[in-house]
Design a protein that fits this description.
single chain, 412 residues, alpha/beta, 11-stranded mixed β-sheet, two-stranded antiparallel sheet, 16 helices, 43% helix
Length: 412
């Protein structure tokens, strides 16, 4: 069968889109994608050769891949879903379910599991499964690949049995699986199970069984979140992160040091889970690029394989998302607020956790607006990058000056 091929466009067709996890913060990524859609021609197809998503980023990635023929329409669908979110679309939030869940955990802890089946998660995200099944046409992903709108889609999850980060990918036939320390790329027909596994935040959402193994949130063990896109052929990377916040001030010498609440610790753990791998991988890319920049062709090849210089454009929030979450806490259902209050997540120290779990439309819409504003404020830079223009920074990274500048200075 002969498929229609998209016409040659002005943008670089070797760009990989990387969407890390971030729970409800993923709405920010939708706003940036909306800005990109406005920069591109109105009826342009998907501009990314590879789309790689983890956790909440996996959901948006699958939507883009399944609607790759018209990028602006795909982003509009994302905005409709993310902008209309309420907690009951993501997890069961009625008073009876929240009371039963809390009682189950208390009983299991108090009785040591005696006569009580151990709870599998704090929240039941079956409503999200049903929402995704209604809104994502998974068979269309292969159609996007066959028609040349996309080279590959990668969804990453963490295997509890193998203790490995597994990037399940669907793409062109010539793409090869890979195996590295604690991580591998595995061909698969992407389905609802891959998404539910990738978003299965430990303890908060239930794990997902695929084959003979249970899987959890893809951010676990994903020490190199940029790697799947590169392995699948991307030569440049556009990364949309969801954190760029300052450090909280330490108490003064005469002020008491508050003991961290369970909610505060949970938020800290989620922040480390979703964000630290990306920061470390960007630091690694910075170092490699600076080494390769000293080579005449910006490449090194040897028995270990080939390293090539990779330009990367990083988009991060211009505002502290935790502060935005504080303004919308009251939008949470009362039953959820009581649960959050019980674990100490509704005070200043717990705003981190709330910022990841606040699936309410007022909050998600404000994040979409922030992402759109940040994208449009960098319109000229984004357009130049999408058209394949080389970066001037010797580290090859735009939008992450705190590290790239520091390393550049260290080489002088």
């Amino acid at each position: 069968m002969k498929f229609w091929k998209p016409k040659k466009q002005s943008w670089d067709r070797k760009i990989g889109l990387v969407l890390p996890g971030g729970g409800a913060r993923g709405a920010y990524q939708v706003g940036v994608l909306k800005a990109i859609a406005e920069i591109l021609p109105r009826r342009a197809p998907n501009p990314f050769a590879v789309i790689s998503g983890t956790s909440a980023g996996a959901v948006s990635s699958a939507v883009l891949a399944s609607r790759a023929r018209l990028f602006r329409y795909a982003v509009a669908d994302l905005e409709r879903v993310w902008g209309g979110f309420h907690s009951h679309h993501v997890f069961r939030s009625d008073a009876w379910t929240m009371l039963r869940t809390g009682s189950h955990w208390v009983a299991a802890l108090a009785l040591g599991g005696l006569g009580v089946r151990a709870p599998r998660s704090m929240l039941d995200n079956q409503p999200l499964r049903e929402l995704l099944k209604r809104n994502i046409h998974f068979d269309a992903i292969q159609e996007s690949i066959d028609k040349g709108y996309l080279d590959a889609l990668a969804i990453t999850a963490a295997g509890y049995g193998s203790a490995r980060s597994i990037s399940f990918y669907q793409g062109r036939e010539e793409l090869q699986p890979w195996e590295r320390a604690r991580r591998r790329g595995q061909p698969a027909k992407i389905a609802i199970e891959h998404l539910m596994a990738s978003i299965a935040v430990p303890l908060i959402f239930p794990t997902v069984q695929m084959g003979r193994e249970y899987f959890g949130d893809g951010a676990m063990r994903q020490a190199t979140p940029l790697s799947p896109a590169v392995r699948l052929g991307a030569e440049r990377l556009l990364v949309i992160g969801v954190r760029d916040e300052g450090l909280d001030p330490l108490p003064g010498p005469d002020e008491p040091v508050p003991y961290p609440t369970v909610g505060g610790i949970a938020g800290y753990m989620l922040d480390a889970l979703f964000m630290d791998g990306l920061s470390s991988d960007l630091e690694r890319l910075t170092r490699i690029n600076l080494i390769l920049d000293s080579q005449s062709d910006r490449k090194i090849e040897g028995p270990f394989g080939k390293l090539s210089f990779i330009d990367a454009f990083i988009v991060l929030p211009s505002e502290d998302i935790r502060e935005i979450a504080i303004r919308h806490i009251k939008e949470m259902p009362r039953s959820v607020r009581l649960f959050m209050k019980g674990i100490g997540a509704l005070n200043y120290g717990g705003r981190q956790l709330v910022s990841y779990l606040l699936f309410e439309s007022g909050y998600t819409r404000e994040l979409i607006e922030l992402g759109y504003k940040d994208g449009m404020n960098r319109r000229d830079e984004l357009q130049a990058f999408m058209e394949g223009k080389p970066t001037e920074n010797p580290a090859g990274i735009i939008g992450w000056e705190n590290l790239s500048t520091a390393y550049s200075q260290n080489t002088e």
